[in-house]
Amino acid sequence: MGYRRRITKSFKNVPVLPVNAQSRYVLFSDCHRGNGTNNDNFLKTQHLYFAALEHYYRKGFTYIELGDGDELWENRSMNQIKEVHNNVFWLLSLFYKEDRLYMLYGNHDMEKKLCSFPKKNFSTYFCTSSQSFSSLCPDIKFYPGIILKDYCNGTCLYLTHGHQASSLNSTLWRLGRFLVRYVWKPLEQIGILDPTNAAKNYTVKKRSEQRLNTWAEENNKILITGHTHRPILNEAPSLYINTGSCVHPRCITCIELENGTLTLVKWFMGTRKNGDFYLEREALSTRTLSGYDKIL
Q1: Taking a C-beta distance cutoff of 8 angstroms, is the pair 148, 17 a contact?
Q2: What is the number of alpha carbons within 13 Å of residue 41 lying toward its C-beta?
């Protein structure tokens, strides 16, 4: 199966969520939450992510995670990930209880698509504040894609992880997991990067983005993904958008959808003149959904 068919298949029988003037969605991808060891790339930005998530929870946003939320290629145990980052899962459970949480799976957490995984790993988590197990997301479902639809003008946003652009990260994902877990993970510790990783290899990244962009143009659809870790929200006529990631050493990025406008946002630590640190939100680029009317 070629990448075009794999991407198209990701939107078969998936949830279609409404977009209107009151809608508030925030799209994150590639958190790669790990088990707290040196290979846990999420450790560098966990405080930024948690603070940003608190902001979106207070503001009434619906949280959509576009895959690779948890690093299950390098780590075998989801319980260890939940234990290390239990504050994050506590906050995700609040979104879930208010029906404001949707999760996709990517290549690094492909196991989530298995029927047994959600019930086994997302029913409860250990809350350190109460020192007891608490409900997490007992009936959560993980999807290959989600569609956001503005029923007023018919504009649709097609959300998926983006790993479908590579056969190693989709059809052959078990081989990819084996190579990462037993070959590239040990070598990465001495500075040798995985040459197949779209986030760390420019050639692989460019090829993936070209294929994702080609699918969007050929199908005349707005496509939003993660996977390559490179945030993209360009002006017309581009139909391809990327949320970026939460594992950059100095910042995290995401896409907001509010008042019919897409905004690419960066969260980072700023410094005041007195030397105090503060959390800063910076809008990198914006684009209205109505602006797509002329090209769709």
Answers
A1: yes
A2: 24
Q: Which domains does the chain have, with CATH numbers?
A: 3-292 (3.60.21.10)
Q: Which residues contact 143 (CB under 8 A, 6 or more apart)?
A: 14, 15, 102, 103, 104, 105
176-204, pLDDT tens digit by residue? 898 888 887 776 665 656 665 777 777 88
3-class DSSP assignment, residue 249: coil
Mean pLDDT, to the nearest integer, of 122-143?
89
284's tokens: 């990198």
CB atoms inside a 10 Å sphere around CB 194 = 18
Going by pLDDT thresholds of 50, 70 and 90, the confidence category of residue 149 is: very high
Burial of 182 (0-12, 13-18, 19+ CB in 10 A): exposed
Reduced to 3 states, what is the DSSP secondary structure of residue 119?
helix
Q: So what's the pLDDT on residue 207? A: 94
